[in-house]
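EI: anyone free to look at a 251-residue chain?
SC: sure, send it
EI:
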Amino acid sequence: MSMGRLRDFFSQHPRIAVAYSGGADSSYLLYAAKAAGCTVRAYFVKSQFQPQFEQDDAARLAQSIGVPLTVAALDVLSLPAVVKNPADRCYHCKTAILTRLWELARADGFSVLCDGTNADDDESDRAGARAVRELGVMSPLRECGLGKNTIRHESQQAGLFTHDKPSYACLATRIPAGTAITEPLLIKIERAENALFDMGYTDFRIRLAPPNSALIQMPASQWDKAASCRKEILSTLQQDFESAMLDLVER
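SC: here you go
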């Protein structure tokens, strides 16, 4: 039923621009729109909050399904409401990003802009969701009742490499609200996460524990490995952090 509703959406909106993150949800939205015969274009905003691998994944997926991709730079650290990192930082950041995407999409002749919000996303817990509503961005996956499990299943059936890609929150989420966001801080967090990824860890986060400690959050299934590699992890992170801690809350 949900898939039928999504096909109906595309038949009603044959030309769409997609706010594209490179994640599982927006990747499937791109694929489904293309498969339905829509004229579709992907728009990716590159800011200081996105690690390079996200842009690389976005380009790879878009190319694999034959959807044109526009990459636009946005200096989010020029926005005082973002840099101050208030509790609603995501709202201010998302507003700036979507405003820029609307400019690009309209310049290319699109009057419909969609994002990859799905039916499982809790809008009450997402400050950015308010920006989506206020700026008139449509969320077909949510509107048509497609949740994360369905999206992953359909993506796998379609052969999309993003079908099992872990959810990823931007680098700004690693910094506690109220702590100013700076480019050097973002760079060292990204460097530390890249290092742990190269060690084989997946689906984890390194959060700043003020003033300068790293709080590692990872699935419980990887705790034993992290404990056995304690010295290696500490050696890797000590160039940027005074200490490192493993969060033992199961997530």
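EI: Residues 94 and 128 are 6 Å apart (CA to CA).
SC: 👍
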